[in-house]
Design a protein that fits this description.
Elements: E1 2-6, E2 9-12, E3 17-24, E4 33-38, E5 45-50, E6 58-59, E7 67-72, E8 77-82, E9 91-97, E10 120-121, E11 125-130
Parallel strand pairs: 2-11
Antiparallel strand pairs: 1-3, 3-8, 4-5, 4-9, 5-6, 7-8, 9-10, 9-11
Length: about 130
């Protein structure tokens, strides 16, 4: 199982970035995935998650309307489109998956953003937003 995040970079306030997470060893048709972030000196926090097959996306309140999670199940890739970036969005962004529950593709699944729920993690990609 691997999750490979990419797409981070340095941008100005108000600009956009799209993060990608290429997954292997499991199918996005069957497992929920999420994006988390961790700023220096702070705890890891949830950004957005989505159920199997890209269903039922969920966002932390601060990200609603600015961030969009999506999946390309054929390419086994998860995206996070980030608009109107702010300096407080500066963090390392991680993608993660819930594998321990087994395949959920046949179920209606509502994801949650609890760090401890996720048991497969990518290496993170740095996003820096300057004012």
């Amino acid at each position: 199982v691997q999750l490979q995040a990419s797409g981070g970079g340095s941008v100005q306030t108000g600009e956009s970035l799209r993060l990608s997470c290429a997954v292997s060893g499991f199918s996005l048709d069957d497992y929920p995935v999420a994006w988390f972030r961790q700023a220096p000196g702070k705890e890891r926090e949830g950004v957005s998650c989505v159920g199997p097959r890209g269903t039922n996306p969920f966002y932390t309140n601060d990200m609603k309307g600015r961030f969009t999670i999506s999946t390309d199940n054929a390419a086994n890739t998860v995206y996070l489109q980030m608009e109107s970036l702010k300096p407080e969005d500066t963090a390392v962004y991680y993608c993660a998956a819930v594998l321990w529950m087994g395949p959920q593709g046949d179920n209606i699944f509502y994801c949650a953003l609890r760090v401890s729920t996720y048991d497969a993690w990518g290496q993170g990609t740095q996003v820096t937003v300057s004012s």
